Amino acid sequence: MRTRFILGAAYAALVSACCIGLCGSAVRAQADTPETHGTSPKATYKEVVDDYGRAVRIPQPVQRIVSLAPSLTETIYALGLQDRLVGDTDYCDYPADAQKKTKVGGTINPNLEQIVALRPDLVLVTKNLNHIETVQALDNLGLASYATDTHTVQGIISSTERLADILGVSEAGASLGADLEHRLADLQQRLSGIPPRRVLFVVWSDPLISVGKDTFIGDALRWAGASSIVESAQDWPQMNLEEVVRLQPEFLVFAAAHGDSVEASFDSLAERPGWRGLDAVRQRHFAIISDAVNRPAPRIVSAIEELARQLHPEAFSGPSEEPADKKPPVSFSRHHNENRDATEICLCVR
Amino acid sequence: MSSSARGFAEAPQLNADVRLSVEQVSYAYSANPTQAPLFTLEATSFQARPGELVAVLGPNASGKSTLLKLIAGTLEPLSGRVLLNGFATHTLPPRTRGQRIAMVQQESPLLFPSRAWEFVLQGRHAHGRSLRFETADDVLIARNALAQVGAEHLSDRWMDQISGGEKQRVILARALAQQPLLLLLDEPTLHLDIGAQVDLLETLRRLAAANRYTVVVVTHDLNLAGQYADLVALFQKGKCLRVGAPATVFHRELLEQVFQTQLTVELASSGRPRVSLPPVP
Amino acid sequence: MRPLTLSRLAGYCALLGAVLFIVVVIALKMGAVPVSLYGLGHDLIRVAFRQSSQLSTEYQLIIFDIRLPRILLAIFVGASLSVAGSGFQALLRNPLADPYVLGVSSGASVGAILALILETRVALSPAVAVVFTPLGAFLGATLTVSAVYLLGRREGEIDTPTLLLAGVISASFLSAIIMFFMSTLTGGNYHGLAFWMMGDLSTPIQPLLGWILRVGFFVAAGTIYMTATDLNLLLAGEQEAMHLGVDVRRVRVVVYIAASLLTALAVSVSGAIAFVGLLVPHAMRLLFGSDHRVLLPTAALGGAIALVVADTLARTVVSPSEVPVGAMTALAGAPLFLYLLRRRAL
């Protein structure tokens, strides 16, 4: 008799738990009407397919955007839409104005409450930095989200143009795209006929991590007249130092926001056992480019150009070629062949 | 207590007077199935009636504890059977076994301390449904059990704060709370002083008579067995050498052979034998 | 002599239930977006009277779609882990046992990693991809539980020391596999998995998974509760319990399966949150005694309270970022463990 009482109480608890759940879903069902999203009273939508293959209905016009990746934030600024950006992540630091936007947390588990409180019309995510669970959660909350996925530099450009279309600034997108294409074509022309430099892109030195060939960084290297010695299909393969020594890359490439700190750490790197087996270390053949190369955004083209200058300075000689914001290299001498056992050559710029 | 509707394997004995019947029970234990058994208990038989106290006597490692487990039904005999009121103890469902057979043995250390009354109440678990709160009847029976062993004053004490002898009494009270037919004790006098030993055996004899228990006590204490037991089973190395009244079992040559030492046996006026060491010359 | 009565049990549960209610209300109030208690109460009444269209919708979304499900998740995960911990402590007769000692969390992690790796290789629709990781974790957990059960037997039935050894060794072996696989994951996934392994309630789960968790909790915890008095006797010793009328074999199997199920469900959705399953039972024993009829429900409620508090702290201390909730429970749990040790409650 008593046992039944206990059981009964237990199942009463179960029922009340169900009630809480049902309450929640009932409220959400009532809330799932188009007028309750965003600030625009008219309900016109654009149907697009994002890079997850999902069909997304985006309210038009898009006045409030939340970006969940630094590259997307940069792209928005590049398209001149920064006034519509209402929130971004803690890591969105370029341009400097982006740091002043309301922060919604990290890229992996952004603060959903904060996003909802900003009442965005559209949330932008990337396939490889953000998580599918975040996308699904945004869906469940009734917020429109669009995902991009880029593996090549061309892909970055076309993705930027597509984003511009969605956001209603197709002309800006087209002109930005055309400009980037022009610069790339120019670069390609300069580098035609010059054999690519064999490089190792160093993401992290301890353990030694580089980039795979199917990433956009890998593609960027190719555009800069470099050939990565890494053949891996993984995105961030961990490299065996012995293997790297055997392959003897001509240059080590580093990406950093501040070039000076990398120089200092390069010196300490050169002191480490094993690393001295690399010709590139002994001869101080390293290139430093801005961390724009790490983000699939329009700025990557600048990073590509920067790298190309450092790897193939001979292709950029001539007075008209000097861009205003670039200092001339400290010291360099021309390379025609493989003979590089001469004095130390530092090609570090900036 | 009487035959239930469940179909156990055995039919009730014809002789309703016998409660416990050990019939040709043997056992063998080997660590590895392919090896020869490390230990065997050879076929043993005896019978006990309600109110009787049986002493299983013998030196260490003679199979006494194994026999007790076979009687309790927690081990399955290799051959033969143990019948309690006609039902084989090994085939009893755990709940029924808890209602009929109570075991008192050296306790494993308690993981989390409890009070004495909680401990004794555990004996009521086999009665009633599994998940339940104890009834007033349960409380009464537990209190009575403590009274019967003279441990009422220990009721509210923590089990890890009482002496060995007191703990022994509480454990016995728990066994009594089970209201069993059969009370089994494994070397209960091991850590007790002589006064406590006598006290315990007196209590057991008294309870056996009053509540009509059949009590089986495993011991190696000759004089306690001789003084209090109605039936003695003498064991050596897994073999039951003799079963009978103490006077018939306590023969000097037999005891000397079993215990490997010189002894003298005297018969007291009560008819009970008394064993002592021979005088030092 | 004061044996346990239903009214005393109900009293303890009501007390903890009240504490849980207060904690939930506070948790609803706290977060990146401020919510006033008066407004909250007002809105809940409006919802009850079906006037929800008058609510500010972001508010609604935040409370009902983000905070409340998360709090509910914390309640059930905390309760599951605590009940499982109590069950394992009784089953293994070891006060240091926690729900993960038999390798359940390591198995779940391996399953989750394999699911993640598979996800990148195979194109899945987003609806499937979201449940893929918890599903993989659950499969990994149940496979591990089955393997440990088979390894932990002697002569056909569970032998407690063997079970413990089998569990510990399986956990170590699986941890090595985890390390091996984690090196093959890409950057974002790696970070996400590390977060999950530390215990993470921030990722909202699909409603279906939430239901499975709740129903599973009541079924499994209810099953363990049916053996509550048996567990009390089991603590006195396995032999003694047998003589007192407990079907030790059956109880061991039932508790093992039920407690493992609870743990597997909890870990699949939230990763391996530390210390809750170990310490909440001990704390409840300190407060309410070791009788499992009381311990199991109070541990469930206590676990719910503990995890809601920890989760609320995890999502507010470095707002808008988050600390994984496992870090919070470890930070609070270790000092509490030491305190209990000093008081010799362990």
Question: Can you walk me through this structure?
Answer:
The complex is a heterotrimer of chains A (350), B (281) and C (346). Chain A is α/β, with parallel strands linked by helices and 350 residues long. Among the domains of chain A are: 44-149, Nitrogenase molybdenum iron protein domain (Rossmann fold, 3-Layer(aba) Sandwich), CATH 3.40.50.1980; 195-321, 3-Layer(aba) Sandwich (Rossmann fold), CATH 3.40.50.1980. Chain A is 38% helix and 15% strand. Chain A is globular. Chain B has one domain (20-276): Rossmann fold (3-Layer(aba) Sandwich), CATH 3.40.50.300. Chain B is built from nine helices and twelve strands. Chain B has helices spanning 64-72, 94-100, 116-121, 136-148, 164-177, 194-211, 222-228, 246-249, 252-259; strands at 20-29, 39-48, 53-57, 79-84, 87-88, 101-104, 182-186, 214-219, 231-236, 239-244, 264-267, 273-276. In chain B, the strands form three sheets. Chain B has a six-stranded mixed sheet, sandwiched between helices. A four-stranded antiparallel sheet of chain B has the order 2-1-4-5, with helices on one face. In chain B, strand 9 and strand 10 form a beta hairpin. Chain C has a single domain (6-342), classed as ABC transporter involved in vitamin B12 uptake, BtuC, CATH 1.10.3470.10. Chain C has helices at 6-29, 37-48, 57-91, 104-121, 126-151, 160-182, 187-197, 207-226, 228-234, 238-243, 248-270, 276-288, 292-316, 325-342, and strands at 153-154, 157-158. Chain C has a two-stranded antiparallel ribbon. The radius of gyration of chain C is 21 Å and the shape is globular. In chain C, 53% of the residues are buried. Chains in contact: A-B, A-C, B-C. Chains A and C meet through helix 1, helix 3 and helix 4 of A and helix 3, helix 5, helix 7 and helix 8 of C.
